[in-house]
Specification:
Number of helices: 5
Strand content: under 5%
Order of helices and strands: HHHHH
Distance between the termini: 42 Å
Number of strands: 0
Largest sheet: none
Helix content: over 70%
Shape: elongated
Oligomer: single chain
Radius of gyration: 15 Å
């Protein structure tokens, strides 16, 4: 259980630094940076992941791998919105491709129950992000 708390703490610090550091819209000569995740979504993600990784069915090894994968893809998702050369459609496509890649990796390490839960959660999150980005 201690290992799970340590990994959650590391993931939380990493993800919140990435996400909260991007809350301001940076004015540039080209176009403003889009937020992939809103502050409310970030808090919801953090709480949901905390609940998932404290599940006893997830091994410490799976928890560690889960944290690495979700942190990596979370960072990549934030970075796509920072590229001033990408159009809105390209950002949406990149975001959706990252979700698919993340799911493919997580499917290999998570027990079926946790993967199904994660997949349903990220489907809802993706729908919300896609809806918001399409409205911009």
């Amino acid at each position: 259980m201690r290992i799970k708390n340590i990994f959650f703490g590391i993931w939380f610090i990493f993800f919140s630094t990435i996400t909260f550091g991007q809350t301001e819209v940076i004015e540039d000569d080209t176009k403003p940076v889009l937020e992939i995740f809103k502050k409310e979504e970030t808090k919801y993600i953090e709480n949901w992941i905390r609940n998932l990784i404290t599940d006893e069915a997830m091994t410490p090894k799976a928890t560690a791998r889960f944290m690495v994968i979700t942190s990596y893809y979370g960072l990549k998702m934030e970075q796509i919105s920072e590229d001033p050369q990408l159009t809105k459609i390209e950002i949406i496509d990149s975001f959706n491709n990252l979700i698919k890649k993340q799911n493919k990796e997580l499917e290999q390490i998570l027990p079926v129950k946790q993967f199904e839960s994660f997949s349903k959660f990220y489907d809802k999150l993706s729908w919300s992000v896609n809806k918001r980005l399409n409205q911009l």
